[in-house]
Every structure is written in C-alpha cells, then in structure tokens.
# Entry
Amino acid sequence: MEKFGFSLQKARVINYDSNDRSIVDYVIGREPSLKLCIECGGCSATCTTGMFTHFSLREMNILLKRGENKEVRNKIKQCMLCGKCILVCPRGVNTRNVVFLAKQAFQKYSTHAV
Amino acid sequence: MKGSVIVVGGGTAGMEAAGRLAEEGFSVTLIEKEKELGGHLREWHHLFPDRRPGSEVMSYLKKRIEKVNVITGTTVESFHKKGREFIVSTGNGNSIHGDAMLLTTGFDLFRSERKEEYGYGIYENVITSADLEMMFTKKSVRLKNGEKPERIGLLHCVGSRDEKAGNLYCSKLCCVTAVKQAIELRETLGDSKVFCFYMDMRMGGALYEELYREAQEKYGIGFIRGKISEVSTNINNRLVVKAEDTLAGRPLRMELDMLVLMAGMEMSQTGTRLAESGNLKTGENRFFAPADHHFGSNKSNVKGIFYAGTCTAPMNITETISHARSAAADIAGYLKNSK
# Structure
C-alpha cells in the first residue's frame, strides 16, 4: 500500500478531566507548601541541573498539578536534590521535599514506577 | 473651642488630615521626627501614573497646614490616656495634651541589603528604586564610574511577597513605580535598553494599565516573567543576573550595567514602637490593624486614637489623601459626640 506520510497525532491538550492527579494529591497531602507556588521561576533560575538539561522545577510543579505525570516521571530523575531552590523560593515551598515525595509516589503507584 | 487633636507623623497623610481638621476649627498639633515635613513624598521626583512632579503635591500640602501648630525635629516617645485626654511625651521632654490622636506614622522602605543575593551594598551598580528616584531629581543617571548605563534591569517584589523577608503581602506600588521608572530611564538615557523582571504585573490602579501599555508601545521596555534568583559580576565588572524566563520555560542569563531593586514597604519602626507602648493592635503584616476593614479603616482598638495612610497598609498618594480626609471626618465626629 502506498504510504503518504500521514499519521495520527496524539492530542497536545491537557485533558484535565481524564488526567490522573493521584501523584500530586500524594505530594500535597504530605507537603502542603506546594500549594503556595506562584510560578516565579526562582527555583529554576538557581538550578544547576536546569542550566544543562531540560529540567525546570517550576515546570514540574505545574505539570504535577495538571496530572501530566508521564512527563514529570521522566524529567524528575534529573534533580540532584541539592536544595538550592529551597533557599530562593519566596513562598517558602519545601521544593526538595516535593521532588522527594513525587519520586516516592511514583514508586508507590507501580504503574508510574520510576 | 471645639477640641484638640495631636497628629503623629508629618508625611502626606499627616499633613492632609491636620490641614483638614484645622480648617474645621479644631486645634491641631502636628509632630514630625524629621526637620522637614513631607515624609517619603520628598524623595519622589515624579509621581505615577501621570509623572507629575512630587513637588506639586508637596506645595499643595504645605498650603493646607497654615493653621496647624507644627513641631518638627521631634520624636514621640510614648503616650497615655488619662480619662478622655491623651498625653504625648516627646523626645525633648515636653508633654502635649489632646482630645484625640491621629497616627500617621507611615512606612519604612524595605532595606534591600537584607536580600543579600541581589548584591545591594555589595555591587556598586545595584541600586534601589529610591536611589534611582534621587538620580532623576539630580538629573544624572550614571554608573558609579560616571559612565552612562546601556542596559538596565528593574527587579520587582524586593522584600514583598517574600516569605524569606518575612513579608507575605504585596506592596502594591512597586509594579507601577517600575513601569514609570523604566519609561523615565528611556527618556533620560535615550537609546538604552530597559527590562522589568516581574512575578505578576499588578496594574490595578487608575491609569496604571495604560502606563504599562505605553511602556511597551512607545518605549520598548522588555518584560520578563521570572524572579531573579541571584546577581553576580563578570570579569568586565558587569552585573550578571539569573532568572527563569518562565514563559519560554528556559533559564535566562543577562548582563546588565545597572540593576534597580523595587524595594517594598514595611510598617515603620516608629509605628511598631507606638503600637507596643500603646497596646494598639497590629495585623499579621505588622501594620496597624484598623477596627474594621470596610467601614472602620481609620479607627483603632482604642477610643479616640485614629489612623491614616500607610501605617495601615501600602497606599499611593491618592489613596493616602483620601484616607487622611476620612480620618479627619471620623475624628470630627468623635469630638462632636464626646463633648
């Protein structure tokens, strides 16, 4: 059969209704300060990992809240847990614990295991 | 004789309220700790949003207080209530009696050196919004070595909305001040490039949004949504700032000749001291807590003591003058009913 180069594209849309927010619920339940993030990007600005890889803690936070777990699961491994981001955060989010708990949640829910 | 009022603090609120009360026929004493009246208004070259000279408002206020007994260069050490009367003890050992008190102790500017990561007091070309305003007044915006700055950054929210600084509230005026100063930098310096680093643009006041638009359209100011995490210098002694360009989703590094820190507003030390000695309630933000947020914003928890202006919350000049006028009305009502 002739191939015309067409294929089905997966929709880019964040499907808020079908997305699974169990990971963020797990994290916020144990580290409620995550609710306070205002996306200023201070954490990502100071992040050594973010200078060299596609890692942004600010982006992780928002993706977690939207239930885009697959993307977070892949990217979160890059964090070195140095904690510089905690020093910068104007909202007092315990950012390192957020990463730690997200990793823990991914382990716990085996379908998302890191 | 209709009654006497002691006003503590001779800034915008104190002058406006004192003038209005004196006009109503009350005997008013205005006590100011500095040698000159005017408070922070004296530091402003131009006001936002219309860039009217601060001196115009200053001369309006000076005309207001012609009938007021003004005492400058004098601090208020403490005060107490005896029956219905208030007795204020001043730093030079005098006592002043009054039937009501109005506290207009204003605000202190956030001390930017507390945010050490921004390098104020460490790098010579990191300055505050107040320093820049002074440069505008002197009509000379220059780097420490006398050269003209080519690229300037303005950092919003220094000491505001910052748990690490102990200030959770928004100082409300710094966003529009940054926009105003960015425009004036472009006007003063010509072909320079100016960037605002912001977390949220809070353009809620009258004509603020229009000024923001003008800054983009007419002056080409760059707006970058991301908080600067730290400032350093490179081998050429230029400032290097790091932020995340949150809208691009990538870290951003930029060299600057000058960085202006938009310092926030804090409860004044005088206000805090008077609150402690007079058992006056303060809020979580350390400003005086008005008796009611909606219809008692000039009243305190002590009968006969009133507030006006930025000792209760960050306010602009327009709001401060309105607040001072409503305090004068409340005080007139109080004195009328207590006779």
Remarks:
- Chain B has two domains: 4-106+268-338, 112-263.
- Chain B touches chain A through 23 residues (CB under 8 Å).
